[in-house]
User: Which sequence fits this backbone?
C-alpha cells in the first residue's frame, strides 16, 4: 500500500506483479489501476518456481516501455 500510493504513476503506466502475490499486496495496485488508469499485469510464475532465474526471467520478459 505504501509503495503503490507513493509512486507518481500516470494513466497508461504499467506495474508488474507476480501471480504469487498475497491478496493484500495485489489490492492496492488494483485500486490504483481503477482510480488512475494504470495497467497492472500479472506475471505468471510456476508453483513452486524451479529457480530464482525462472522468476527474474519471467519479469524481464514482461517489461515493456510503459513499465
Assistant:
Amino acid at each position: 500500500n505504501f509503495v503503490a500510493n507513493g509512486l507518481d504513476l500516470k494513466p497508461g503506466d504499467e506495474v508488474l506483479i507476480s501471480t504469487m502475490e498475497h491478496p493484500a499486496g495485489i489490492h492496492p495496485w488494483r485500486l490504483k489501476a481503477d482510480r488512475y488508469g494504470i495497467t497492472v499485469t500479472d506475471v505468471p510464475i510456476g508453483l513452486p518456481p524451479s529457480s530464482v532465474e525462472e522468476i527474474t526471467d519471467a519479469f524481464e520478459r514482461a517489461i515493456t516501455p510503459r513499465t
User: Anything to note?
Assistant: The chain is about 45% helix and 15% strand. The mean pLDDT is 94.
